[in-house]
Structures are given as structure tokens and as C-alpha cells.
Design brief:
A: 99 residues, 78% helix, B: 259 residues, mainly alpha
Chain lengths: 99, 259
């Protein structure tokens, strides 16, 4: 099996995550799809670290994990705040600026 | 002309078996995330994808990242997701009505285009260096090698990331904090409210359960000076659950005889 198969898998997972962000309405599911995209990028970094024979790709993947953790903390806090005032986590309900 | 099998090294057979077993499963789980109605099911499928990715990391000589993936992602992040799902209601399922007309076909077409672009790009890439693998980089152990990179070349980025983590924690605290609309009832307010009532019967406070009664359990009503049981001395919760003992059982016998 070619090592590049990991890159193909990473590309497919990233695409699935991107579709999920666009078509799902629940803010929490949208968030999970963003996590899926970050994870797919991480897989590509780890694979490239292996191809290149050094650990710098793994260091970048490590930083991505930390940033993803921060993003989850702040994003979920925003979702909870919106839920508290609107009783809904649908991304379509928060459209006050439209009207 | 198009060279699809990117010649950047081959893997051993066990790893190929692992890949061909787990990769389709994780892709199906990803597709399932888009289809399932309930957010909890999406979360479970995402947890499965994250575990498979952790296995892939370990298979690719990234032992430390594989463990961190399980601890941080499937442990902390997914638990946080499930926690928030419980908070906003597990039953809150997504509505599948299209709010923007034609959004779904456009999104799927764009995704096929984007995915096709990415895969052809990977397929056409060439790599004009010999594939060495991580054997030499991991010679002192993966965690040691990673630590050496982190604390020498990337030490500034590491510090910046720590500042980011602290900022995120503070931001979450600020966002989660809610202003109280009224001040809480303190002992003083409760006392004033008691004395402003029409009848001053309870001005000294309600009797506690078990006072002067035969038992001092919480479900035993207190006895008033007249010898009668006081049902108000028992928590309304116990009464609603039916855990209250019949109050007449504890009235003083003499009282009954006198009558």
C-alpha cells in the first residue's frame, strides 16, 4: 500500500467535514464537522512527517490539537450563551442582522 | 501521463490491512455524521473517527500524538461536546428542511469538485527525495524527539500557544458568566417577608421535622405544643413523593384520650 493513501483519506475526511459545515443546521454538529476537518489536516501532517523523515509535521499537528481545544472551549461557550437567550442551537435562528 | 500511484514509499502488509479495514469505516462514519438526525449520534460517529485516526497515528510512528489524540480528543473534547449536548437537550434533533433553496445540491457538487481537485493534486505530486521514514528521527523515542523539537526550535510558538490556552479559558469564563436579574433572597429578606405576612403564626419560622416527636427522622412531623402533628414541618418534596409517614400516627396518645 502506498503511503499516499493516508493523504487520500485525509482529503476525503476534510471534504466530508466541509460539506457538514455547509449543510447541517445544528451549531453543535457544525462544530463537530470543523473538528473533523482539523483532524483530517492533522492526519496529513503526520503522514508528511513520515514521508519527510523528520518530526516537524508532528509538532505542527500537536499545535493544531492545542488550538482545536481552545476553539472548542470558546465555541461551545458561545453556543451555550446563544442557547440561553434564544432556546435554540440552530444556526438559522440567529439571523437578527438580516432583517 | 497522470501518475496516480504517488511513489512515496510503501508500507508493510500489516499496516495495509489495518488501513484497508479502518479507512472505509471512518469514511462511512464521516458520511453518517452528515446523515444522522440526532446530534448525539453525530458525536458518537465523530468519536469513532477520532479513535481510528489515533490508530493511524500510532501506525505511522507518531506514538505520542496517537496517545494525545485519544486523551485530548476522544477524552476531553468529545466529553465536552456531549456535556454541552446534555445541557442544551439531547432530544434537540436537527431539522432537515432546506432553509436556503438548492443549498444541498450545490454543496454536494462543490464537495465533489473540491475532493476531486485534492485527490488529483495528491496523485500528480512527485517527491524527488528518498523516503527515509521516521526510524532515525525516533531513535531516542518519539516523545523525546518531539520534546526536543518543541523546546528548541518551536519554543516561542509553544509559549504563544500557552498564552492562547489561558486566553481561551478566560474567554470561556467571561462568556459563560451570566448577570443575575435580581439579588438572591438572603436571610434578612426572608425574615422581613415573614413578619410582613397577614398572620404571624409562622413568624418564628416553621418547625423542623422530628421536634418533640417520637423519632427525629426527616419524614416524621414535629409535634406542636398542643400535641398535634405539624405537616408543615416536612419538606414538600417528601410529601409529593409519598415518602411521608402519616402524621396522625405520631400525635400524642394522651391528647386522643382526653378527647
Amino acid at each position: 500500500m502506498a503511503i499516499a493513501n493516508y493523504l487520500y483519506l485525509s482529503a476525503i475526511l476534510f471534504t466530508i467535514g466541509a460539506v457538514g459545515v455547509v449543510i447541517r443546521r445544528n451549531a453543535i454538529v457544525v462544530f463537530m464537522c470543523i473538528e473533523l476537518m482539523l483532524n483530517a489536516a492533522n492526519l496529513a501532517f503526520v503522514t508528511f512527517a513520515r514521508i519527510n523523515g523528520n518530526l516537524q509535521g508532528q509538532v505542527v499537528a500537536f499545535f493544531t490539537m492545542v488550538v482545536a481545544a481552545c476553539e472548542v472551549v470558546v465555541g461551545l461557550a458561545i453556543i451555550v450563551t446563544i442557547y440561553r437567550s434564544r432556546r435554540s442551537t440552530s444556526v438559522d435562528d440567529a439571523s437578527l442582522l438580516k432583517r | 501521463m497522470i501518475n496516480f500511484a504517488l511513489d512515496i514509499g510503501k508500507t508493510a502488509t500489516p499496516e495495509a490491512v489495518l488501513f484497508y479495514f479502518l479507512a472505509p469505516l471512518s469514511v462511512f462514519a464521516g458520511l453518517g455524521m452528515l446523515i444522522v438526525k440526532k446530534a448525539v449520534h453525530s458525536a458518537l460517529l465523530l468519536a469513532w473517527i477520532m479513535i481510528s485516526l489515533a490508530i493511524f497515528y500510532i501506525a505511522q510512528d507518531a506514538l505520542f500524538l496517537g496517545i494525545v489524540q485519544i486523551v485530548v480528543y476522544t477524552g476531553a473534547v468529545m466529553m465536552l461536546f456531549l456535556f454541552i449536548l446534555m445541557l442544551v437537550g439531547v432530544d434537540a434533533s436537527d431539522s432537515f428542511t432546506e432553509t436556503i433553496r438548492g443549498l444541498r445540491p450545490i454543496a454536494i457538487t462543490a464537495a465533489i469538485g473540491f475532493g476531486g481537485l485534492l485527490t488529483t493534486l495528491i496523485g500528480r505530486a512527485t517527491f524527488n527525495r528518498p523516503i527515509t521514514g521516521l526510524a532515525s528521527a525516533n531513535s531516542n523515542g518519539n516523545a523525546n524527539g518531539l520534546a526536543k523539537e518543541l523546546f528548541t526550535q518551536y519554543v516561542f510558538a509553544f509559549e504563544v500557544v500557552s498564552a492562547l490556552l489561558i486566553t481561551a479559558a478566560l474567554g470561556a469564563m467571561v462568556l459563560a458568566h451570566s448577570q443575575k436579574t435580581r439579588s438572591p433572597f438572603a436571610q434578612r429578606d426572608l425574615s422581613i417577608a415573614r413578619f410582613r405576612k397577614d398572620n404571624l403564626k409562622d413568624a418564628a419560622g416553621l418547625p423542623s421535622s422530628g421536634v418533640y416527636a417520637l423519632h427525629n427522622a426527616v419524614d416524621v412531623p414535629a409535634l406542636l405544643p398542643t400535641g398535634k402533628a405539624a405537616p408543615t414541618s416536612i419538606s414538600a418534596v417528601l410529601e409529593a413523593r409519598g415518602d411521608m409517614i402519616e402524621s396522625s400516627k405520631f400525635q400524642l396518645q394522651q391528647e386522643e384520650e382526653e378527647k
